[in-house]
Amino acid sequence: MKIILMGQQAFGKSTLEKFYKETDHEIVAVYCAPDKEGKPLDPVKEYALNENLPVFQPSNFKDKEVLDQMRSHNSDLCVMAYVTIFVPEEARDIPQHGSICFHPSLLPLHRGPSSINWPISLGSKKTGLTIFYPNDGLDEGDILLQKEVDIGDDETLGDIYFNKIFPLGVDACIESANLLNEGNAPRIKQDETKATYESWFKKDIARIDWKKPGKEVYNLIRASNPQPGAWAEFMDEEYVFLDTKFSEEQSAEHFPGQIMEINEENVKIAVKGGFLIVTRFKSKDQGKLYVKDMNTAVFTEGDLFS
C-alpha cells in the first residue's frame, strides 16, 4: 500500500523506519510537527530527510492547500504514529482506507494525553495499546487492534513505555496496515459505558501526599518516573523521587515522610503501611544522582519530607 506516515519523536521515527525498511509498503509522504526555533529537528523529519522521503509540516490541516497536497499523494492509508496536532475528518479520509491511529492504552480506558501514567498510578495490573480509526472525538474511534501488557509491581512509566508499549506499538502499526491491505481489518465500537478520560499527568498531580497509604505513594512514584517526577519538599527544596522500592514492613516509631535510615546506597523513608527505599533522587542543587554519589549530609535521620 501507499502509506502516509504521520508522527513525531522517537515512536514516529521507529514506526517510519520499520515501514520503510522492513515492509513492502511504499512511504509516499511523511508528515510531522512544524519545526520549533531553537529546538533540534524532530527525529521523524531527520530520518525522512536522510532517506530522501518527502516531508511536510503543516500547522493546520484544514487549509485547502494542505488538503490538496495530501490528495496528490494518491495514498491508500495514513498511519498516525504519535500525533498531537488535530487532523480533521476531511484530511483523515483522503487515503483510500482512511487513517489509523496509535494510542497507548486499552481504549476506551484512559483516553487522553497521559494514558500510560494513569493506570500505573491507579495501581492497575494491566494496560496496553490500541490501534483505532480516529474520529473528531478524543480517542473515541472504532478499534482495529489491541495489545495487552502486564504492569509489574515495581515497573515504572519508563519500563512500561520503552520496554513494552513502544516496541509492541510499532509492530501493531505494521500489523494493522497489513490487515487493511488484506481486507481483514476488524472495526469494533468502543464501549462507552467503560470509557474513562484523564487529563495531563502534570507536576501538581505528582506531588507526594504523605497522608495517603504507602502503596498509593509508591504507585505515584512509579507512574511519574521519569516524567513528570514525583516530588516532595525537604528543607524548602524540592526532591524528585526516581529509583525507589516499597517495603510493607511497618514501623510504629516513624511518621509518614520521616527519614528512618541513611546509608551509602539508599535512604529509607516511612510511609503509611511500610517504607520507601530510595536509591536515586533529583534536586535543583545536586541534579539527578544516585544516593551513593550524592551529598547525604543534607539528610538527618528523623527529619521529615513534606
Short structural description:
The chain is of the alpha/beta class and 306 residues long. It is built from seven helices and 15 strands. It folds into two domains: 2-194, Formyl transferase, N-terminal domain (Rossmann fold); 214-298, Methionyl-tRNA Fmet Formyltransferase, Chain A, domain 2 (Roll).
Our Rg estimate from Cα atoms comes to: 23 Å
Largest sheet: 7 strands, mixed
CATH topology of the largest domain: Rossmann fold
Task: Report how far apart the termini are.
Answer: 57 Å
Give the SSE string.
Answer: EHEHEHEHEHEEHHEEEEEEEE
Query: How large is the count of helical segments?
Result: 7
Write down the domain tally: 2
Strand order of the largest sheet: 3-2-1-4-5-6-7
Under CATH at level 1, the class of the largest domain stands as Alpha Beta
Q: What is the mean predicted local confidence, pLDDT?
A: 96
Helical content (DSSP H or I, runs of 4+): 10-25%
